[in-house]
Specification:
globular; transport; transmembrane; MetI-like; membrane
Length: 292
């Protein structure tokens, strides 16, 4: 067992304490939201709910599961997250791989063009006019295509591709492999860490889509979950079909509990997916940190 000096032990204790405090500042508000989503309306209104449910009830979740508009928004969010992440990874890899190879003549110019987009961004009004002229407004494509390639993620993936030995690519070409075969059989299998890392970044960005949907989509049927949650906070509208089995119980309920339940439903999928990709995520974050 490794022995630490007194200074190292003090530092480790301070480090653990500090990180525990930071973790609590993130965890406690989440626990409060969970508690409110499982508490009665009276307890929420009277501010009795802390970190544990008061007058435990599942009526808030029963309402969410009975509201078709929330499920529709959830479906839209899942769709743009899955399809958008696939588009992002394919588009980013398609651009990053060629410019990572020395034999590509125009790679420096392409890298410079991408770098410019990190420094200069178009204002909102010209962006809206462009989206409208392309007939993307009030379609889900407006949430998928404009941000197909993130400049930052492009440079991360390019850095990873540059670490793949050129001799491996050359030997594959000598064996008769075309570029598509090289990418599908050699480059992508070796790129799982960076794909997982950037996939998480892209997926979280799509899952939290808010401003773009607010600017470019006016149809309630196309609202993602974050916009639906915002509208719910604005209107306090908890109307539901009177024939529903939860209608009578909701007649005197507080919309706060329902909002908290929607927040939990909007947060849990990303939290549940992250542990399965954590190993690749940590490995991918080390890309470019060590130079040979």
């Amino acid at each position: 067992m490794r022995q630490y000096s007194r200074g190292q032990n003090v530092f480790n204790a301070f480090n653990v304490t500090l990180l525990a405090i930071v973790a609590l500042t993130m965890l406690l508000p989440f626990l409060n939201v969970v508690a409110q989503s499982l508490s009665s309306s009276e307890a929420i209104i009277n501010n009795k709910v802390g970190l544990w449910p008061v007058e435990f009830t599942t009526i808030n979740y029963r309402y969410v599961f009975s509201d078709a508009s929330i499920w529709r928004a959830f479906g839209v969010t899942v769709y743009i997250t899955v399809v958008g992440t696939l588009i992002n990874l394919i588009a980013t890899a398609s651009l990053a791989y060629p410019v990572s190879r020395q034999e590509y003549v125009g790679r420096k110019a392409v890298v410079m063009f991408v770098l410019i987009t990190m420094v200069f961004t178009a204002p909102l009004i010209p962006n809206f006019i462009l989206m409208k002229s392309l007939h993307l407004v009030n379609t889900l494509w407006v949430l998928l295509l404009p941000g197909a390639i993130s400049a930052f993620n492009f440079f991360v993936m390019r850095s990873f591709f540059m670490q793949i030995p050129g001799e491996l690519i050359d030997s594959s070409r000598i064996d008769g492999c075309g570029e598509l075969r090289i990418i599908s059989s050699i480059v992508l299998p070796l790129s799982k860490p960076v794909m997982a890392s950037l996939g998480i970044f892209y997926a979280v960005n799509h899952w939290n889509t808010y401003m773009s949907a607010l600017y470019y989509i006016n149809k309630p049927a196309l609202w993602p979950l974050q916009v639906k949650l915002k509208k719910l906070f604005e209107t306090d509208d908890i109307s539901i079909d009177p024939s529903s089995q939860v209608f009578s119980s909701l007649a005197h309920t507080s919309p706060e509990g329902i909002k908290m339940a929607v927040i939990i439903i909007a947060t849990l999928p990303i939290i549940l997916i992250y542990p399965f990709l954590q190993r690749h995520f940590v490995k991918g974050m080390m890309v470019g940190s060590v130079k040979s």
